[in-house]
């Protein structure tokens, strides 16, 4: 598919309600503040757009201009059915229309929007003070790495049985809002100094089975109402966290990259590889990567921004191996390539690997990545065909093409329609 002029970061979802995956591309002012969004279908046909790709304003930091470009990191845009009406919306932070000179290091001129997925029309907007007061500073110092990872997480904080609430971490602050964009609570994280920092992107899930989600920040766990369930510094480089089941039939657990640990809802360590085995836990994912494994396993990029991976189960490390070098050596993902029958495969740019480090799938006709810190193939795992197996959706945010790879030529007889889950609307992409 040729996205034409719509190069930038990507989100996916069924925007038109026809059972086929669509795409949202966006670009950000100064690489940080979304200022243009465009939607297009699987054939590359534009559906709608909002904002301007040529938007520029004066930069109060440098004295130059902030331009609308591909985002510095995957940012605050999500495709989800936030209001529960059965149709997907686009949830995003977006610059004020009348903004003047600005800095990329604060949200003082940014709104929260909910856009109709079919038309791009604004259904709802708000500019809560708790959000607009967020910036990149902690203890009087600019903390860039803690600020650039901004992601809107969709959660069920109210127990409505539907993920209609929003959690966003901006710098040191977490802000939770309900589906009407009313602020529910805020939390100030006290670990902001590299490498002693909380997760750049938290994860959400129901730990206690009460039908309401908690927020896992790696060094803390927050209840649905923002109450602190536990806070503890458990290790350096808390770059990546998940909320996933770990025990057979058990509740969700906090899976964290620092030391390769699994924690329960009280912060107790159920499993730990340790800092010697995982000196710098850059990324962590969960799956079943061996055909003979009936239990969850972890895959960890254990040595920072390097191509070194390990796979571990409850009994310890099963394999260590190296994958291909990529510009940032990030982008790890679990792919349910074989459906429920498994085993899962591991994506690292840009191939699929099995649990023992063998290259299992290559992607034909995939051009070389553009290069640079973000110029590599980001991956969405998604059941595009609706047959119970996940396809691989790849994009380079500096290019204007999207590539979808499937296991075999699509057959109409097994096509069940695109399936949108939290693996897409709360996608990780990079940690």
Helix content: under 10%
Taken as a percent bin, the fraction of beta residues is 35-45%
Sequence stretches where pLDDT stays below 50 over 5 or more residues: none
Count of DSSP E strands?
A: 37
Report Rg: 20 Å
Structural class: mainly beta
Number of helices: 3
How would you characterize the largest beta sheet? 6 strands, antiparallel
Alpha-carbon distance between the two ends? 27 Å
Shape: globular
Q: Give the rounded overall mean pLDDT.
A: 95
Walkthrough of the structure:
- There is one protein chain.
- The protein has a domain of 127 residues.
- The model has no long low-confidence stretch (mean pLDDT 95).
- It is built from three helices and 37 strands.
- The strands form ten sheets. Strands 1, 2, 3, 4, 5 and 6 form a six-stranded antiparallel β-sheet that branches. Strands 7-8-9-10 form a four-stranded antiparallel β-sheet, with no helix packed on it.
- A hairpin with an 8-residue loop joins strand 35 and strand 36.
- It has 431 residues and is mostly beta strands.
- 3% of the residues lie in helices and 39% in strands.
- The protein is globular, with a radius of gyration of 20 Å.
- The two termini are 27 Å apart.
- The longest helix is centred in the middle third of the chain and has 5 residues.
Task: Summarize this structure as a short list of keywords or feature phrases.
431 residues; mainly beta; globular; 3 helices; six-stranded antiparallel β-sheet; 3% helix
Offer a concise description of the structure.
With 431 residues, the protein is mainly beta. The chain has helices at 129-132, 144-148, 422-425, and strands at residues 9-13, 22-29, 33-40, 46-51, 56-58, 65-69, 77-80, 89-95, 110-116, 122-126, 137-138, 141-142, 152-155, 165-170, 173-177, 183-188, 192-193, 196-197, 203-205, 214-216, 220-222, 228-231, 241-245, 252-256, 261-263, 269-272, 283-287, 297-301, 308-313, 316-322, 333-335, 345-348, 351-353, 359-361, 378-382, 391-395, 402-405.
